[in-house]
Amino acid sequence: MDSPSRTLPASWFCSPALYQLERRAVFLKSWHFLGPVTRFQDRKKPVIYEISQVTLIVENSSPESDGINSDGIIVYAEDKAKIKYHLTPSGLLFSTLSLDAPSFEEYFVGLEVLTNTVDFTKLPHRRSISYSGRFNWKTMIDGFQECLHCQYTHPTFSKYYPPTFYSVTNHSTFSQHIADPSKTSDGLFLYFFPICTLNVYGGGMSSFRTCPGTEPGWSRMEFDYYHSGTEAEFEEYFKFVRQVALEDFELCEKAQQGLEGGVYGEGVLNPVKENGVLFYQRRVRECVYRQFELEKKVKEEEREKEAGGGGMQGLGEGKNGAVAVQ
Ligand SMILES: [Fe+2]
Q: Which residue ranges are recorded for the region named Disordered (predicted)?
């Protein structure tokens, strides 16, 4: 049963047919955060992304001598499909996977007002890592969007950022997390719907994407790390943030096992402490419902055209009842 405070059912984390519907409803219609301009400072190496089976290439052709220069940054899809991209005045690069997404301004209403208060071009890119995990992309975002689990899952993190202060503010397609309101330049976490984050804490900055795999129970985690310190300082920061990421990874693999094994069906979310989860899951649900209705209408129209009217079979009536939009 739909209720404003209920989680998405476990089937939304496991069903292959629903996953494909989600791809069309969410990923192909969204904007994705690729990185601050400092990610693209090596002019010789294009940066390659794969999001929801679409490969994007970022090239920076601005003159090397200009240092941080965003004028020459271009983004294109490997298969030459048309996409859109946008660089904010504060130096953050975003891209779509198709032309089905709305304009940047329409999608991220109010984002630049927030990001323009921070200079994201200060910290140089230091390292990027990537690995696969056995969990649905939403299993990871569920954990990112709340900090109720922080105290018992992240003991070192909780020492520096006590969960008592932790709060999440949701906007149309992004969330701002603040670990401690008295420190404005530390403990800032941004979530960009659907799969990207930007995290300023522990003395550096990191960004991760939870890239959906070809099956619902797999994701590829991609992390980029930014830091201005010495090699030793960076390694210390890296160790700290990696510890937090590994703790989350373990939690997600276990949660996914519970979702796939029928241990966990659905539950109720805390409207204050889990408002970030409620916000993003609601948006997923809305996008999927809208896409379902859209595709159903198109199919009905096609059938009516073929048979001269009357066709009513929708997506939900597939051969094995595969899609069950609840
Ligand atoms: Fe966590």
A: 300-326
